[in-house]
Amino acid sequence: MIFYFMLGMLISVCFLSLSTLIYQTSIQQSDQKMSAFECGFDPLSYPRSPFSTRYFVLILIFLVFDVETVLLLPILSKEITTSHPHVMLSLCSFLFILLLGLMVEWYQGALEWH
């Protein structure tokens, strides 16, 4: 029993000293080697680079219309001809609101890339 305890303590001390040794050698390396690598980005540049707000608005519009399309797919998977009239009315009103939103975004110029 004491043998296994001593063996466990020896292995623990070996791993602890090995990790300390690795840590000490990594501190001695330069900061450039320790920085995270991101493809195409200079790690020494200012992290808050400006981005186009137009692009952000376009992505938000895409997400809204994408979610509406996902909500529309289960309705279209059913046979519309055998469904009740209120389902057809709700489908038409949903499509009308979707088309109206698209027209408003188009009129405001959010879909144009300048």
UniProtKB/TrEMBL annotation:
InterPro entries, A to Z: NADH_UbQ/plastoQ_OxRdtase_su3, NDAH_ubi_oxred_su3_sf
Keyword Nucleotidyltransferase: no
Protein EC: 7.1.1.2
The keyword Transmembrane helix is annotated on this UniProt entry: yes
Subcellular location: Membrane; Mitochondrion membrane
Keywords from the named record: Electron transport, Membrane, Mitochondrion, NAD, Respiratory chain, Translocase, Transmembrane, Transmembrane helix, Transport, Ubiquinone
UniProt cross-references to Pfam families, sorted A to Z: Oxidored_q4
GO molecular function, one term: NADH dehydrogenase (ubiquinone) activity
Membrane topology field: Multi-pass membrane protein
Main location (coarse class): membrane
Catalytic activity from the UniProt record: a ubiquinone + NADH + 5 H(+)(in) = a ubiquinol + NAD(+) + 4 H(+)(out)
Transmembrane parts of this sequence: 53-75, 87-107
A GO cellular-component term linked to this record: NADH dehydrogenase complex
Job description of the protein: Core subunit of the mitochondrial membrane respiratory chain NADH dehydrogenase (Complex I) which catalyzes electron transfer from NADH through the respiratory chain, using ubiquinone as an electron acceptor. Essential for the catalytic activity of complex I.
Family designation: Belongs to the complex I subunit 3 family.
Entry-linked PANTHER family: NADH-UBIQUINONE OXIDOREDUCTASE CHAIN 3 (PTHR11058:SF9)
Protein name as annotated: NADH-ubiquinone oxidoreductase chain 3
